[in-house]
Structures are given as C-alpha cells and as structure tokens.
Amino acid sequence: MTQNQVITETDSKQKDLMDNFLRVIKQNELSHSYLFSGEEGVGKLSLALFITMRMFCQNLTSESMPCGECDECRRITDLQHPDVIVIKPDGLSIKVDQIRYLKSEFSKSGLEGNQKFFIICDAEKMTTGAANSLLKFIEEPMGNVVSFLLTTNRNLILPTIISRTQVVELNSLSRSDFEAELAKLSVTPSQYKLLSRLTNRISTVQEWQEDEWLAHSISAVSHWFNLIVDNDITAFAAIKTNVMSLASDNSKKQVIINMLLSIFEDVLDAKFTSEHNFNFPKQADSIKKLANHVNKSQLIQILEELLSCNKLMAINVSYKNILEATTLKIMRILNS
C-alpha cells in the first residue's frame, strides 16, 4: 500500500474518524493506546498508518493533512520507519516472542525523534502469553508512545486490555466499498448482491472461493431451484447428489440455507416490485416464472418453511433430513 493509497482509503472508508483524529492531534490529545475494532476491509490499518503519518509528516498540507509524499510518509507506509513498528501474526497467532520484541522497543527512545508508534494487526490472535505480556506494558505506558491494536473481533481480546485502551468502532463498509473489495478478489459482479446478503467479511468471501466452493454452491442451489420451478421430484434427490457434499461444516450449512432463502426472496421481489435486482440474476427467467405461478400465501408459507430450517439445525436435526423434508414441503405448497 502506497502512502497516497493510505490517505485515499482512509478518506473513503473512515472520513469521520479521520477528521476526528486530525482534531485530536491538533489539540494534542492523542491517547497512549487505541483498540480499532471493525470488519475486514474497513481500513483499520490505513487509519492507524494515516494517524502515524500525520504525526511524522515533514510537509503537512494547509488542512493539516499528511502530504503523502515526503520521506517520512513513504517509510511509514513501506513499514520501514525505525520509530513505527507493525506486528502481524506469525503463522496463525501473535506469539510471546513478538511481544517481547515490542517491549524491548518500548523501552528505547525514538531513534529519530521523541515519539514511537506500534501497530498490532489481528490483535485477537495473540496467544494468552502474548496478551498477558502486552498487558503489562499498556498498564504503565512509558514515554511518548502510542499503540494501535487492530481487531475484527473485540470479544476475543482480554477484557483487561480493552479496559486500558480507547476503543474505536470503525464504520462498516458501504455497499460500493464492499463491492470494490470483492472486485479485488475477482468476484463476478453478478454475485455482488448475494454476497452482500450472506456476509460482510472479505476474509469469509476469500474462504468461500477456495476450491470454488462459492461457485459450486450457487450452481447447486440454482439447479435445485430450477427443478422446484419445473415441479420435478428429482429436486429431492438433488439435495443428496449436489448439496450435501458442499455442507462440510455448520457455517457452510447455514450459508446454503441462506442461499435458499435468498432465491425465494428474489421470487418475492419479482412478484411485488417492478425493478428487480436479484440475488441470483442468472436465474431471472425461472424466478419470474415462479413469481407468476405462486400466490402471496404460498410464498409466505415457503419462506416460513425455509426460516424454520435454522431452528431445526439448532436442535441438531439431521441437515440432510431438514433440506429433503423442506424440499417436499415446498413442492406440496406449490401444488396446493
């Protein structure tokens, strides 16, 4: 990420927080430790780097913004500044040795000035030992030091650490920003709305793209739906042959149920609105065909059946039995 990208992303995704921190810095009221909490892709690291750039920049603009061009700004975004340290997970976790290194740097004076900044990415991934080691430092901050802890799940952070930081909740991604992040992952635009319906986490989308799970799931649900529309009893068999292999864990089982709900929400959209933006745009003909056939009462019954799948999952009813029984109920409703 370049220095100008840091400024652009922060301005785009967290404009209000950016302006607030500019005021805080101008009033010399920056706290010693912050916890930035928010979803993937909302700009937590960009905001932390922006604040750091503002503190070190040699050529502030007339609006007190970092210039994004000087040597200080460049070294910060290149993660090469000696007084700005960024810690990221080593493998699956942040280990105690990484925090010990951080502690040793806390005890030193700034190499080029009187201030130092530390950024800990994915702070929820600290081991217990690492978290306890860090706690001792933020309990008694030394010198002119500011730390930023970045997390996607503050519930996994030690309460004692949270109590000693200023918690900042970052705004969720706007629809356009989320779609821009999806584009970076080479997600097909026709999948944007469905993914926005299913998740707000970019990392989750990345996981679903592994082994083309997302594409296979959309295909399986679309095939099942087309059989339902054609009143084809093999929709029942399609659960076993096409769907079950994709339901490898409870999380993915839930996603598939939400996909089934989403495509019937498209039917609802087609029946009662004139402008359509379907979750499953490639199934538009089948969606409109069913919308013309089904009445309001039938559609409500179908949606209620699909919603009840969540309750059945919660009491550990067989997932295969849930989907097969729901398929038969939907076909009975459509034939009533």
From TrEMBL:
Protein name: DNA polymerase III subunit delta'
The organism's place on the tree of life at top rank: Bacteria
Enzyme class: transferase
EC number assigned by the record: 2.7.7.7
Segments crossing the lipid bilayer: none
Lineage: Bacteria, Bacillati, Bacillota, Bacilli, Lactobacillales
Alphabetic keyword roster: DNA replication, DNA-directed DNA polymerase, Nucleotidyltransferase, Transferase
Catalysed reaction, written as an equation: DNA(n) + a 2'-deoxyribonucleoside 5'-triphosphate = DNA(n+1) + diphosphate
